[in-house]
Design goal:
mainly alpha
Length: 281
């Protein structure tokens, strides 16, 4: 008998499983599955030529490229910064530690449009930070680097909150044993600490990348939204809605949706294999 069917036929140890499971399925169906299904049904009314034309328009294709490049660069940068923040918060006790730890979650609480306006003002050529980049001819606001900065800001918590619990639960005995065996600090980091953190880093980086693909509010406020240069895919969807071209907007949305679902599925597969390997060791 299939293990899942056997699970449902067994009597749960704790009461309330049927109600909680039914409520969870209802919630997922109404809030997630129903809107996704409605979008796919709406897109299915288009012919293949109409759908293909909508998602392969030259301007839309360029938005895919800009979005993917911005998400890639921001993920690489935010993985490094997020790892350092998680390391400092976990391994050191210093004045202001709790404040920094709480500020990590600020992008979750702050509306992304507010973040975008703030970042654009800071990094514009006459802004507090932008004036120093302007000396070297580097333009942040209303250019591609602004997209990367906005994506870094909104995706930073995913890295920190993925790595921080692993660092907190890591046993000091492993490091002490490596030290007693003659390993120096760099060897302990590369051969003891980093291999343990790899699953968490992959999880946080993947979530940050997926989050950056769908970022809208912060990006459009700082990017300048120049056609074929700083337009992201989420903006192109909004543009098609403003043009009352709802089929094209739905087609673009379906591409983003399918890409996100595929990446999430791949992330689950990779996580399962990594944790299975770690458990086997």
């Amino acid at each position: 008998m299939n293990s899942s069917l056997r699970f449902f036929r067994n009597t749960p140890i704790l009461p309330g499983f049927s109600i909680s499971f039914g409520f969870s399925v209802l919630y997922i169906s109404l809030v997630i599955l129903l809107p996704i299904s409605a979008l796919l049904v709406y897109v299915s009314g288009m012919s293949f030529d109409q759908y293909w034309f909508a998602i392969t328009d030259a301007r839309v294709l360029q938005s895919y490229k800009v979005t993917l490049m911005g998400a890639f660069y921001s993920t690489v940068i935010v993985t490094f910064i997020g790892f350092l923040l998680a390391w400092i918060i976990t391994r050191y006790d210093f004045p202001g530690r709790r404040l920094i730890d709480s500020l990590v979650d600020l992008p979750f609480a702050l509306p992304t449009s507010v973040a975008g306006v703030t970042l654009s003002v800071l990094f514009m050529p006459t802004g507090w930070l932008g004036q120093w980049f302007d000396i070297f001819g580097i333009k942040i606001s209303y250019a591609f680097p602004g997209i990367v900065v906005a994506m870094i800001f909104t995706s930073l918590p995913f890295i920190v909150r993925s790595v921080q619990p692993v660092l907190e639960d890591m046993e000091n005995e492993l490091e002490e044993a490596a030290l007693m065996l003659g390993a120096n600090k760099w060897q302990i980091f590369w051969r003891v600490i980093l291999p343990t953190l790899i699953p968490a880093l992959i999880t946080g980086s993947s979530q940050a990348f997926i989050r950056s693909l769908g970022e809208f509010g912060a990006v459009i406020m700082i990017a300048g939204n120049i056609p074929f240069q700083t337009e992201v895919t989420s903006l192109m969807l909004f543009v098609r809605l403003q043009e009352y071209n709802y089929p094209a907007a739905a087609a673009i949305a379906s591409v983003v949706l399918l890409a996100s679902l595929l990446l999430l599925f791949l992330l689950q597969v990779v996580q399962g294999r990594l944790f299975k390997t770690a458990g086997g060791k």
